[in-house]
Amino acid sequence: MKQEFLLPDLGEGLAEAEVVQWLVAVGDTVTLNQTLAEVETAKAVVELPSPYEGTVSVLHAQAGETVEVGAPLIAFEVAGEEPSVPDAPTTGDAESALEEKAEPNLVGYGAAPSSRGRPARRARRVGVAVSDAGAEEAVRAAAPHDAVATAVVDAPLERPRSTPPVRKYAKDKGVDLVLLSAELATVDDPAPLITRRDVDAYLARISERSTTARDAVSVERGSQAPSPSGERTTRVPIRGVRKHTAEAMVRSAFTAPHVTTFHTVDVTDTMALIASLRADRTLSEHRIGPLAVVAKAVCLTLPQYPGLNAFWDETAGEIVQNHFVDLGIAAATERGLIVPVIREAQSLSLPAMADALRALASTARAGKTQPAELAGGTFSITNIGSFGIDAGTPILPPGQSGILATGAVRRQPWEYRGEIALREVMTLSLSFDHRLVDGAEGSQFLKAVADILQEPGRALLY
Predict the structure, then answer these.
(1) pLDDT at 118 exceeding the cut of 70
(2) Which numeric CATH code is attached to 156-214?
């Protein structure tokens, strides 16, 4: 019998994913939990295991296409007879009947969302042709006759159907979902589920109309119309990690009042300590570096400055202070910037911190960082020194009040014990949310971290 696998909810409220590559083809025999495909969400590339054992009969999307959560992704022919079609349930039993028919759509991802009543819309989004007549017949066969009749003839006015993230996105973009719902509505689907793509398409149509109007005015005034795009330009779709990063940065930059302060510190003793630890055979495999020492210094210092390890809860009207450190580490990947999190970083020793950083970087470079590993950070570090940069003004990840940028370690003339000497120095750049953190607290925190880097032995005081 035929079994459809719908794209599961991959966590963190993600509404869609792009198919990166299929690892199976039509006609292939697959086993339970065999990897079917790699899909890219707004945060990471995720492997999808098979929830069935059988033969692949249909691939509903091609590589490069975007599929919404709950839309058909792949179909299987599995052993067993097609279940008999039960009598249509009465109105009172409809809800319980649907609950009984719910089945797991992926190990660990809960029940498959119901797709009844929306085959035409979902098929269009992944490029699968489904006739209107067939879709209408499927809906009528699956629902009581009275329900179908009243849905078309006398549907009450309700709030447009959409998810909370889409409603917020539309509000931020100034889109009236009532108008958009009316534009998308059809006889078969009078209350369509509005997605982010619908909002973007609506904005594109509005922009196109505005551009057309401006061009018409320019022609009337004798202005030269702009030349079309040619070989000298390339248009790259905004999607995946880049799209998520852009949205997060805009949301943070225009929500939290950012302040950045800088401090240049002599890290000669820290670099000597690192060289000594690397020379120790019992520690050499940990590959302890400057970033690990900075991360450890941050974890030691944060408890004394709770505002830097907190977030502003606008809805509750509260400042939420964390008594643990989930440390975000910015990582540049081929797909864009991501900030995976080291959980409970305050409990790690220096060698364990170095191991965690190395594992995090390796996973990020391979594109295997999972969405859950990108959520919930309480403070972040970005190592811009790896690009030869001394200082910067990093933007806070949403939900955090502090981020520290570490610059390149440079050997240069420096005042040392009343004389000029060649010393190894580093510039630290701290951005913080001025709603939670005053300038004095931010400066004192930065100075405390710098003191540990200047004299590593001060870590024994914590």
Answers:
(1) no
(2) 4.10.320.10
Q: pLDDT by residue (tens digit) across 41-51?
A: 766 778 899 99
Fold of 256-461: Chloramphenicol Acetyltransferase (3.30.559)
Q: Which residues carry out catalysis?
A: 434
Domain 2-154 coded CATH 3.20.20.70: no
Q: With pLDDT > 70 as the criterion, what percentage of the chain qualifies?
A: 76
Spatial separation of the C-alpha atoms in residues 4 and 58, rounded to whole Å = 9
